[in-house]
Amino acid sequence: MQILVTRFHLLLLTVTLAMTGVGMLRIPEDFVFLAHWSGTSADWLWPRLVIFVAPAIQLLLMAIFFLLGRLLTKNQYAKAQHILQPALTALMGVVAATQLGLLLSGIGSDLDFVRVTAFALGAALLLLGVVLYEAERHTYAGLRMPWPVRSDLAWRIVHRATGMSYGLGGVCVLVLAWLDAGIGMLILSFAAALLLPAVVAGLVTVLFLNR
User: Fold this and answer.
1) Are 82 and 4 a contacting pair, CB within 8 Å?
2) Does 91 score more than 70 pLDDT?
């Protein structure tokens, strides 16, 4: 069967649910997360219930990738599986790491794990951007789309545009982490840095579909 969701993804979901349960037991009901600062005062306050967002996002991601795997043809699935499964793992891993950061913050830990995650993710995206930008055309490597990128020039433009998008996303995440912009801005930057380059890749491939 064409299933992109693996047992490891279920494990990540289980870990995130476990952290959510611990958060409900250990984080006080009246606790608020200071998500963003304006000067010396917090202007974004998130209630304790925000810890339920992470497992909800993971369930949504798993549902989307499950449906995607069933919709792809056998040929498309064979070509894209080695990219889509790691992509789902990365997305769910970032969500799980963010949940751990919220849990540690909620129980009073001094370790800002959301910021640690930001540094790691920013560095990984920057490296991915360089790899995609410098990639040479190969039968089994590079981006995989449902539609073909026919010419070498179009393939190069698509990969350089995507590489620059991921690189820029990585730099932005690193800058926000360095400036300690707050967990709110960091979590939003995670979503933007992971999802927007993928949108850029899809749009550019469509633009150069017949070139």
Assistant:
1) no
2) yes
Q: What is this structure's pTM?
A: 0.86
Measured in residues, the chain has a length of 211
Burial 116-146 (b: 16+ CB within 10 A, else e): ebbebbbebbbebbeebbebeeeeeebbbbe
Half-sphere exposure of 43 (CA within 13 A, CB side): 6
Q: Which of 83, 110, 137 is the last residue of a domain?
A: 110
Which of 61, 54, 46 has its CA nearest to residue 17?
54
Q: Which amino acid is at 178?
A: W
| 211: pLDDT strictly greater than 70 | no
Do 34 and 114 form a contact (C-beta atoms < 8 A)?
no
Number of domains in the chain: 2
Residue-range definition of the domain harbouring residue 160? 112-211
Structure tokens at 185: 């801005």
Same domain, 195 and 211: yes
DSSP string, 49-106: GGGGHHHHHHHHHHHHHHHHHHHS-HHHHHHHHHHHHHHHHHHHHHHHHHHHHHHHHH
DSSP string across 177-209: HHHT--HHHHHHHHHHHHHHHHHHHHHHHHHTT
CA angle 9, 195, 70 (to 5 degrees): 50
For residue 177, count other CB atoms closer than 10 A to its CB.
Answer: 23
Conformation bin of residue 175: beta by default, left when phi > 0, alpha when psi is -120 to 50: alpha
- For residues 51 and 106, the answer to whether their CB atoms sit within 8 Å is yes
Query: Is the pLDDT reported for residue 138 higher than 70?
Result: no
